[in-house]
Amino acid sequence: MSGDETEWIAEKTVSLGAAGFSQDAAVMNAAEEEEDLTGKILCDKFELTAFLGSGGMSEVYKARHIVTGKIVAVKILHQKLAKEENTSKRLKQEAQAAGALTHSSILSVHDFGVDSAGTPFLVMDFLDGVSLSDILKKEGPLPLDRFLTIIQQVASALAHAQQQNVVHRDLKPSNIMILKEGKDRAKIVDFGIAKLVDPNNEASQRLTQTGELFGSPLYMSPEQCTGAPVDPRSDIYALGCVMFEALSGKTPHMGETVFDTIHRHINSSPPPLIAAQLEPQVRDRLEGIILKCLAKNPADRYQSAASIEAELRKIELSEASGIISRIGSAWSLAQAKYLAKRKNNVPLLVISLFSVSALSVIASIILLFSLIDYNESVSIR
Q1: Buried b vs exposed e over 338-362: b needs ≥16 C-beta within 10 Å?
Q2: Is residue 24 in a domain?
């Protein structure tokens, strides 16, 4: 890395804070000084009923539509930032980016407006769940079945975003929500710095110019780290970081400072994947997928998140087949031991052979229908 590049990155990382990766101090101060808006009604439609949280750009409230009674979440730009043209445009860009997406694993944005004080806001689905980040902190690395269930949904959502020319640019465990309803239903949230990839859209280009540094350092692609143009393959790199952390409990690149972390993304190879909960063969297959996602050169990564979803699906089907095969082997061994005690028992021998054959047929049918179902779901998406 050249001296000029090092100096540029050092300058850009100042606003990202120290090891805690906090936001710029001025932005955080704006958040801290905001008044509680609970009870306020926006545009005669949405009553803010509870404060949910605050970030560098905005606050989020639980709200109720005063006519339909529908419960939603409302993201409101910090009042001091509402006067900044680019910040307001970014919130509108989030609405446009998320509005272009219709997928079961992406948070839906229903409305964009400006209140009487001139403050922009977004209206989104209200999610009752916890972030993947909180799950990893509380429970540690994910077991294989849960990992495959969650990450396949995330990959499917990214594939849909890619088809719509949307790059999230800030994919991380805290932006992946796991709903309490259903079995590990995942949703990607916060397209606050998403980029609509349209080379002919001059306004979008001015809003996300080359040289601006966006994202969370632990999950940023090398091209993001250097302020280079990004495309969906940056999200694939971030997904590789998420997968590594979900299986090992650690991010692939963690420096003592933001600068150190960014330097590692650009120059260092990720460490070996240590995941004690996995069988060595499965771990090696998953590590191969993750390492391809984490390639420094975007051309060496998966070119589509759909390819990652397909690779994970193969592992899931292989594991299901293996379980059935192990059950069949155990059953066969038990029958053999029993038959050894009862020699010349022809009827029992026939039943044993039939049982093992039946299990093999069942395993084949399950795999066949799983593949058919998967292919149909991919074609529909």
Answers
A1: eeeeeeeeeeeeeebeeeeeebeee
A2: no
Which CATH number goes with the domain that contains 162? 1.10.510.10
Sign of the CA dihedral running 51, 53, 57, 61: negative
121 & 134 share domain: no
> Based on the number of CB atoms within 10 Å of its own CB, is 249 exposed (0-12), middle (13-18) or buried (19 or more)?
middle
C-beta of residue 227 within 8 angstroms of C-beta of residue 212: yes
- The CATH number linked to 107 is 3.30.200.20
Residue 220 lies in a domain: yes
> pLDDT (tens digit, 9 = 90+) per residue, 307-337?
999 999 999 988 876 555 555 556 555 655 6
CA–CA dist 63, 70 (Å, integer): 8
Helical (H) or strand (E) element with 61: strand 58-65
Number of structural domains in the chain? 3
Distances in whole angstroms, Cα of residue 48 to Cα of each of 41, 82, 315: 6, 19, 45
293: number of Cβ within 10 Å: 27
Q: Is the pLDDT of residue 372 over 60?
A: no
Q: Which range, 71-80, 92-101, 135-144, 322-331, has the best average confidence (pLDDT)?
A: 135-144
CA atoms of 293 and 43, how far apart (whole Å): 44
Residues tagged active-site: 170
**Are 102 and 42 found together in one domain?**
yes
Residues 193, 175: Cα–Cα separation, whole Å: 12
Cβ-based burial of 67 (10 A; exposed 0-12, middle 13-18, buried ≥19): exposed
Structural domain for 101, as ranges: 34-125
CA–CA dist 51, 150 (Å, integer) = 28
Asked, for residue 23, whether it belongs to a domain, the answer is: no
Q: Looking at the structure, tell me whether residues 189 and 106 fall in a common domain.
A: no
* Confidence bin at 361 (pLDDT 50/70/90): low
Q: Is residue 15 pLDDT above 50, yes or no?
A: no
Same domain, 244 and 345: no
Q: Specify the range with the lowest mean pLDDT, choosing from 44-48, 78-82, 298-302.
A: 78-82
Cα Rg, the chain, nearest whole Å:
25
